[in-house]
Design goal:
The chain is of the alpha/beta class. It has one domain (about 15-60, about 70-130): 2,3-Dihydroxybiphenyl 1,2-Dioxygenase, domain 1. Helices cover about 15% and strands about 35% of the residues. It is built from 2 helices and 8 strands; from the N terminus they run E-H-E-E-E-E-H-E-E-E. The protein has a 4-stranded mixed sheet with strand order 1-4-3-2, with helices on one face. Strand 3 and strand 4 (about 55-60) form a beta hairpin. The longest helix has 12 residues, at about 20-30. The two termini are about 30 Å apart.
């Protein structure tokens, strides 16, 4: 009998601590087009958001001081970064939805055209399209 193929990773979901999970989920839905089906916890404390096969989990922090965006610890560091197929169109969509654009469309020396947005809790979310970098 041939050996079984090795296990593979099939998806990932960054987890962010937020101050108010319901408000944060609605913000992601309304400004970035993510969807969710339900909340978990009593009181409500957890949600899984999704868009285009990508996932983000939000967990309400027990203490607001635990919500620490990465850029407050390391300059210009995102909490999440997504690669996208059309960064210019996504930027236009987010602007039309009223998203807070942290930094506008720009071409980076590492071969990506990108922009950043910020959520209600100050987490930076980057969106980039490879221009000359490799996808491997």
């Amino acid at each position: 009998m041939p050996p079984a193929p090795p296990a593979r990773l099939t998806a990932s979901a960054p987890v962010l601590l937020v101050k108010n999970v319901a408000a944060a989920a609605d913000f992601y839905r309304d400004t970035m087009g993510f969807q969710y089906e339900r909340f978990w916890g009593e009181p409500t404390s957890f949600v899984i958001l999704h868009r285009d096969g990508m996932y983000v989990m939000l967990r309400q922090a027990d203490d607001p001081k635990h919500v620490v965006p990465h850029w407050t610890v390391a300059d210009k560091l995102w909490n999440i970064y997504f690669w996208v197929s059309d960064v210019d169109a996504l930027h236009d969509e987010f602007v039309s939805r009223g998203a807070t654009i942290d930094y506008g469309l720009c071409d980076q020396p590492y071969g990506c055209r990108e922009f950043g947005t910020q959520d209600l809790d100050g987490h930076d979310i980057g969106f980039g399209q490879p221009t000359s970098c490799t996808d491997d």
